[in-house]
Amino acid sequence: MANLKHLFSFIVLLLLSLGGNKQSMADDVIRVGVVLDLNTTVGKVAESYILMAVYDFYAVNANYRTRLSLFTRDSKDDVVGAACAGN
């Protein structure tokens, strides 16, 4: 249950960070860090769902020139350490 709370928090933060990046329609790449516990089933499923969602979004919205570049890192079951490593 704790993993689901962390996943939900991550998705909310991701959506909030994307909403604040009002870019021009130039060919921009927005780098997004994704921190998941890849040793768990929830982390592996979340990673595949995020990648699928980004792929599907650009398949439907091919006219968008701003692209997301996802950098996935394993938290290794240490949420606080993983959050600090992002700075």
Main attributes of the structure:
Glutamate receptor; two-stranded parallel ribbon; about 90 residues; about 50% helix; 3 helices; alpha+beta; globular; single chain
Q: What's the SSE blueprint?
A:
Blueprint lengths: L1 H18 L9 E8 L4 H20 L6 E8 L4 H7 L2
Parallel strand pairs: 1-2
Keywords: Signal
Organism: Castanea mollissima (Chinese chestnut)
Protein name: Glutamate receptor
- The overall pLDDT average reads 78
Structural class: alpha+beta
Give the terminus-to-terminus CA distance. Answer: 27 Å
Subunit organisation of the chains: single chain
Element string (H = helix, E = strand): HEHEH
| Number of DSSP-assigned strands | 2
Q: What does this 3D model show about the protein?
A:
It is a single chain. This protein is an alpha+beta fold and 87 residues long. Helices cover 52% and strands 18% of the residues. The protein is built from three helices and two strands, in the order αβαβα.
Short description:
With 87 residues, this protein is α+β, with helices and mostly antiparallel strands. It has helices at 2-19, 41-60, 79-85, and strands spanning 29-36, 67-74.
